Amino acid sequence: MKKVMSKIYPLMFAAMTVFPAQIFAHGTEEEHQRESLLGNYVFFGIVILFLILLLSFILISKKVKQLNNAKNEADRAKRKQLAKAAKVFKWTAIGAFVAVLISGFAVLSGGSKTTAETEAQQLKEVTMEHAHGMSYSPDGNKLFFAVHDGLRVYEKDQWLLPAGEKHDYMGFSMVDDGFYSSGHPAPGSNKKNPFGIVKSTDEGKSFEALALYGDIDFHGMSVGYKSHTIYVFNPEPNAKMKTTGLHYSTDEAKSWTKTAMKGMEGQPVALAVHPTNEAVVAVGTEKGVFVSRDYGQHFEQIGPTGQITALFFNAQGSLFVGGIDNKSATLIRMDIDAKQTGNINIPAITEDAIAFIAQNPVNEQELAVMTFNKDGYTSSDGGKRWTKIVDQGKGTSTQK
Question: I need a surface site. Which of 134, 241, 267, 314 has the fewest CB within 10 A?
Answer without folding.
Answer: 267
